[in-house]
Structure formats: structure tokens, C-alpha cells
């Protein structure tokens, strides 16, 4: 238990410190590296929540691909190397962000998140399903608070089942979104070359 | 996944397929006419498939299509409500494509991409209006917004780039706020489906220390409204509107101002009337506040505008306010919750006709005189009688004067508000009526410039026949809705019966 606490607070410090750094550091290259740090810390949180698959995906995609792309982009663009231009709206933006943060923290602390647990039995099964990507074993599911019946319905399925099952439509719609992004990006890049 | 699932999403598939086909045709030919023809005629496929689904609903008497073991029905609902908006979106897309015939020459090599992105955006809207699940809604909303952001930057000038950039960044910000709200809802209810959210909320709805029973739900509603507010272009989330309207290509602005707005209001109606139904409808106070702010800010700032596209940017904010009055009219005295929403649907259809007419005339005139300044419209009646009369009629409709559709739309919306029996709603109606009077000033000023002042040039302003056809259809729609509003109002009433569990 103690070990978990220590890991949690260490990860929290890294994540928050890194996020602050991304916003406050003037040099964009360093900001990108700090962003990668934040991604790693978030991956750590996923491990703590028993979602090892998500953690691996997080590191592979966010740190391995997205952060690297950022850094390539920054290194290939001459203007941004000079750093983040000072912004006269920094103070109002800071105030609004702080207010939103305060509201979110207040909500997270004051809300009794367990009141509706009874209404969402089925969804607990779904959450367990999302976390377990391989074939989840029955003891794990029982520990997650599911009845024997529900364990049976969940066993043998996983994240993939959700993506190609109930959530197939949004999953496929993302491909259209990526197509739109590619067309738009190409069109704008080509238009500039005129 | 069954064949029936494919039938359910077939209008979406047809529209997305058409978008890809247009891009391929663009590779093979450089002729604008062919491109416009393919895009316009192709729209018949999704329209016919939607009509087929509607015919099935009519023949079975059901309010929504259902099937055992269907996978896609987990995340969407094909019902009269979504089909109503399907037709509205397809009509707007078709007319905008016709009008782009002349205009798209300005985009030189990007014509195919322009039509392709327009159709992809329309696909996102059709997915959005049928989505009943938060993740699907989010992705549909992004699919709606992202192509529009790219299109906003298509003109080779600085203002257009600025418009695209503003739309993209502020759109991302609003999506982020909305996602926070969705995450809170999911955390509190354990589901992303609207019906399960409603069930969970009604199971746990109790008089707590905060409005809506819990701080989490309160904050979620506020954040969701902020996110939706950007998409509806309602104040105080309107700061992107004037710049985008001024800088972006005019046909894209026409599409944005009607179709994107209609889809956003469909989303708001579904989320609040289905998902948050269990909260007793108390959220109408927030919507009423947004309505009052939007009407007042939109109309007051519009008075000072000299650029006609910018003026219509503020005008659209004001109209978002009028429509929000209808959304806020949750329950009428006799307990039927359909009056407010059905007035919203009717208003959106009438607004689509009027605003498209106005923008089509602006596209034609702006294309010839290379200016969007109101002062350059002087004497337009003599230079382009058809365009000037169509624009004049659209402006009269936007004020809300008979014999136009928006006259009835405003009456229905305000009547729905009065019918709730809340004194606050009565005040909202008074604000709305005063605002309509204010709006008459700046709309009539354009008419005065066009009809009474002497022209600077005598050169005639005309347009090609597809543009004139589109303008004619939109103009006739204004008059038709003004003379015979009952069929459409009946359709709107049947459509919203889905929202109240019918």
C-alpha cells in the first residue's frame, strides 16, 4: 500500500510539473520533451489502474510517435525555433484556467462517485472488459466486483470486442475523420506552393 | 454485424462514398461542371436511402428502426428526428454545391477537395443527428468541424488563413471543454449511452446540496453547454464567428451557418431532452440565459457592421438566441414537451431557407464586384434585379415579417416559451421581440442601400444557371414555408415525438 502511495504521488508530481513546464517554458523544443515526460507519467497511471495494455499503447503512440513528430516538426521549422512569442492574454488565460481547475478539483472531491454504482452494474463489466485485453481470468474479474454470471459473460472478450462490436460505428467514423484531415492538410499544403 | 446494420447506416455510407468519388473524379477531369454535376446528382443516393428508411417507419408506424442483435443501434438511432435533419442537411449541401459553381474558380486547383470536404462534413452532421452515445457524438462533431476548418483556409489570402486557424483552434478548445463534461457524466453514471445515462440519473436523482443533485452533473452540464455553445455559435462562445464568416469562402460560410448549426441544435435537443430528462428539465434556466445573451449581443453588435459577411456573422449569433428560446421551452402547461422542440425544428428549416438565399445572393454579387462591403451594394436593384429582390426577401424573412417562413417560426418559438407558464420565459419573449425590432434596423439598411441608392457602376451583375436555380429554390422555400407552414410543422411534431420516449 505504501509503495503504491509513493508511486502515485511521484507520478502525479512528474505529470503536473511536466504539464506546467510545457506551458511555461519558452523554448519549444524543451516544451516538446516535457510533453513526452507527461505522456510517460500518464502511462504510469494506467499501469496503476491495471490497464497494462493502455499503458503500453500510450507509451508507443504518444511518446514513440506523437512526441517524436512534434520534435521533428519543431526542428524542421525555422520560425518556431526562436521560441514561444509572448502573449498579452497570458494573465486572463491563466485566471480562467485556474478557475476551471478549481471547479474540477472541487467537483472531484465533493462528488460521491459511488452513489450510482448500483445503476451501472453492466457498465462495470464493460470497464473490466476494456481493461483486460487478453482473455481475462475469472479471479481478476471477481476481484473487480462482478458476480459469477457476469464473469461468464465477460470472459473471452476484451477491448477488441468492443471496438469491432458495440463501438464499431465510431471506430469506423474515425477513419473518415483521418481521411478528412489528410485531404484538408494536403490541400492546404499544396495551395501554399502556388 | 448484420446486413440490417449496413441498411441502417446506408445513407452515411452513400454520402461518404460520394465524397471519395468526387475526389477521384477531380483527378480525372478539370471541368468544374462535371464535378458539380457528380456531387449534386450523387446526393440523390443518400436522400433516396433516407426516404426509404422513412417509408419503412411510416409503413410500420414505429418511431424508430429496431432490430434484434443489431450492433450499430448501440450507438445511434434511426428515427424520424434524425431523418428530418438528414433531409435538411442534404438539401443545404446540394444547394451549396450548385452555388459553388461560379465561386470555386477562385480556389483554382482545390475544387475537388472543396466538394469532397463539404460532403465529408455533411456525413459527420448526419452521423451527429442520429448519434445516441457520447463517443459517437464527439467523433461525429469532429468529423463535422475539421473539414470546415480546412475549407475556411482555402482562399489564397491572409484573412482566409486566419479564419481557418481561428476555427480550428477554438473548435479544439470547445471540444476539450465538451470532453471534460462527457468524462464527468461517464464517471457519474457509468455509461456513455443517453438512455443509460437517463436511467442512472433518475435512479440517483435526489435533492442534493447542488442544482441537479450533484456538483459533478452541474459542472458537466455547464461544460457541455460551453462546448455546444461554440458549435451553435451562441454567445458568450461566439468570438470566432465574425472573423470566420468574413474570411472564409462564402459558400462554405453558407453551409456552416445553416447545416452545422442545425446539427448542433439536434445534438443539444437529444442530449438534454433524452439524456438529462430525469433532471426535471431544470437546465432550461441556463439555456434561457444563453438565449438572452445571444440575441442581445448579436443584434447590438450587428448594427455597427459595414461588411455584409461580418454582419451575417452577428446575425447568426442572434438567430441562435431565438432558437435557444425554443430549446429552453421544456414543458408547456398541459404537460406536452414537444411544442418547444418542434418549434426549434421548424425554425431551423425556415432559417436554412432564408439564410441560404441571402448567402447565395452574397456569393453571386461578391463574385462579380469583388467586395463584401455594404456600401458597394448601392443600386443593386438596377444592376441585378433578381439577386437584389431575392436578397431583399431573405432579409425581410430574417426580420420575421410575413409572408415568410421565419415569421411563423418566430411565432411558434415565442408561443412555446409563453406556453411554459414561467414568468422568466415571458421576459425572454419580451427580450426576443425587442431584439427582432432592433434587427429590423440593420437588415432594412441593406435593403435601402440596394433599392434606393444610385449605383456606382452600371455594369450588370449576373450568375450562371446552376446558381440561379439554387437561388430560385431557396427563395421559393422561404415563400412556401410562409404560405403553407402546416406540412413541415406536422413533420417537425412527428420528429420530436421520439425525444419524449415515443
Task: Describe what you observe in this structure.
- The complex is a heterodimer of chains A (about 190) and B (about 500).
- Chain A is mainly α and about 190 residues long.
- Chain A has helices at about 1-25, 30-50, 50-75, 90-110, 120-130, 140-145, 150-155, 160-165, 170-190.
- The model of chain A has no long low-confidence stretch (mean pLDDT about 75).
- Chain B has a domain at about 300-500.
- In chain B, helix 2 (about 10-30) packs antiparallel against helix 4, helix 14 runs parallel beside helix 18 and helix 15 (about 340-370) packs across helix 21.
- Chain B starts with a helix and ends in a 6-residue tail after the last helix.
- The chains are: A mainly alpha (about 190), B mainly alpha (about 500).
- Chains A and B meet through helix 4, helix 5 and helix 9 of A and helix 2, helix 6, helix 7, helix 8 and helix 9 of B.
Amino acid at each position: 500500500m505504501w509503495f503504491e502511495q509513493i508511486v502515485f504521488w511521484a507520478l502525479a508530481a512528474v505529470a503536473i510539473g511536466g504539464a506546467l513546464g510545457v506551458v511555461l517554458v519558452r523554448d519549444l523544443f524543451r516544451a516538446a520533451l516535457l510533453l513526452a515526460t507527461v505522456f510517460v507519467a500518464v502511462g504510469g497511471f494506467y499501469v496503476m489502474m491495471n490497464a497494462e495494455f493502455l499503458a503500453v499503447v500510450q507509451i508507443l503512440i504518444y511518446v514513440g510517435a506523437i512526441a517524436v513528430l512534434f520534435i521533428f516538426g519543431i526542428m524542421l521549422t525555422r520560425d518556431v525555433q526562436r521560441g514561444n512569442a509572448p502573449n498579452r492574454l497570458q494573465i486572463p488565460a491563466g485566471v480562467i484556467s485556474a478557475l476551471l481547475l478549481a471547479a474540477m478539483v472541487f467537483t472531484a472531491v465533493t462528488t460521491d462517485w459511488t452513489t450510482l454504482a448500483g445503476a451501472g452494474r453492466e457498465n462495470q463489466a464493460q470497464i473490466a472488459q476494456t481493461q483486460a485485453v487478453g482473455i481475462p481470468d475469472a479471479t481478476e474479474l471477481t476481484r473487480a466486483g462482478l458476480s459469477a454470471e457476469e464473469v461468464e459473460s465477460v470472459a473471452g472478450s476484451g477491448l477488441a470486442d468492443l471496438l469491432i462490436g458495440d463501438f464499431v460505428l465510431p471506430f469506423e467514423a474515425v477513419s473518415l475523420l483521418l481521411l478528412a484531415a489528410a485531404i484538408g492538410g494536403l490541400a492546404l499544403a499544396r495551395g501554399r506552393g502556388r | 454485424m448484420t446486413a440490417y446494420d449496413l441498411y441502417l447506416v446506408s445513407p452515411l455510407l452513400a454520402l461518404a462514398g460520394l465524397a471519395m468519388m468526387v475526389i477521384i473524379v477531380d483527378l480525372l477531369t478539370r471541368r468544374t461542371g462535371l464535378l458539380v454535376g457528380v456531387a449534386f446528382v450523387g446526393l440523390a443516393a443518400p436522400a433516396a436511402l433516407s426516404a426509404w428508411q422513412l417509408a419503412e417507419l411510416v409503413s410500420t408506424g414505429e418511431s424508430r428502426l429496431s432490430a434484434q442483435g443489431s450492433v450499430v443501434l448501440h450507438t445511434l438511432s434511426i428515427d424520424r428526428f434524425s431523418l428530418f435533419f438528414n433531409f435538411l442537411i442534404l438539401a443545404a449541401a446540394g444547394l451549396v454545391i450548385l452555388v459553388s459553381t461560379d465561386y470555386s474558380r477562385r480556389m483554382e486547383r482545390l475544387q475537388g477537395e472543396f466538394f469532397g470536404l463539404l460532403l465529408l462534413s455533411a456525413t459527420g452532421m448526419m452521423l451527429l443527428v442520429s448519434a445516441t452515445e457520447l463517443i459517437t457524438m464527439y467523433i461525429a462533431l469532429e468529423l463535422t468541424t475539421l473539414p470546415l476548418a480546412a475549407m475556411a483556409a482555402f482562399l489564397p489570402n491572409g484573412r482566409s488563413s486566419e479564419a481557418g486557424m481561428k476555427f480550428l483552434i477554438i473548435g479544439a478548445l470547445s471540444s476539450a471543454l465538451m470532453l471534460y463534461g462527457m468524462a464527468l457524466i461517464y464517471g457519474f453514471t457509468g455509461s456513455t449511452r443517453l438512455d443509460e445515462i437517463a436511467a442512472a440519473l433518475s435512479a440517483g436523482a435526489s435533492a442534493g446540496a447542488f442544482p441537479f443533485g450533484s456538483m459533478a452533473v452541474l459542472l458537466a452540464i455547464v461544460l457541455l453547454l460551453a462546448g455546444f455553445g461554440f458549435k451553435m455559435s451562441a454567445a458568450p462562445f461566439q468570438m470566432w464567428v465574425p472573423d470566420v464568416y468574413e474570411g472564409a469562402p462564402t459558400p462554405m460560410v453558407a453551409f456552416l451557418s445553416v447545416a452545422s448549426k442545425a446539427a448542433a441544435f439536434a445534438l443539444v435537443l437529444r442530449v438534454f431532452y433524452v439524456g438529462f430528462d430525469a433532471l426535471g428539465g431544470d437546465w432550461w434556466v441556463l439555456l434561457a440565459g444563453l438565449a438572452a445573451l445571444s440575441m442581445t449581443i448579436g443584434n447590438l453588435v450587428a448594427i455597427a457592421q459595414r461588411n455584409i459577411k461580418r454582419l451575417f456573422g452577428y446575425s447568426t449569433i442572434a438567430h441562435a438566441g431565438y432558437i435557444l428560446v425554443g430549446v429552453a421551452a421544456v414543458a408547456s402547461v398541459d404537460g406536452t414537451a414537444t411544442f418547444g422542440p418542434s418549434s426549434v425544428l421548424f425554425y431551423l428549416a425556415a432559417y436554412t431557407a432564408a439564410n441560404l438565399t441571402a448567402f447565395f445572393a452574397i456569393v453571386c454579387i461578391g463574385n462579380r464586384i469583388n467586395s463584401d462591403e455594404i456600401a458597394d451594394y448601392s443600386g443593386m436593384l438596377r444592376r441585378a434585379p433578381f439577386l437584389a429582390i431575392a436578397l431583399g426577401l431573405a432579409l425581410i424573412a430574417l426580420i420575421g415579417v410575413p409572408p415568410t417562413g421565419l415569421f411563423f417560426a418566430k411565432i411558434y418559438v415565442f408561443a412555446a416559451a409563453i406556453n411554459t407558464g414561467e414568468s422568466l420565459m415571458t421576459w425572454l419573449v419580451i427580450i426576443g421581440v425587442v431584439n427582432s425590432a432592433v434587427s429590423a434596423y440593420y437588415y432594412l439598411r441593406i435593403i435601402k442601400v440596394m433599392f434606393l441608392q444610385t449605383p456606382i457602376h452600371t455594369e450588370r451583375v449576373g450568375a450562371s444557371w446552376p446558381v440561379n436555380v439554387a437561388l430560385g429554390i431557396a427563395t421559393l422555400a422561404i415563400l412556401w414555408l410562409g404560405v403553407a407552414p402546416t406540412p413541415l410543422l406536422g413533420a417537425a411534431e412527428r420528429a420530436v415525438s421520439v425525444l419524449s420516449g415515443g
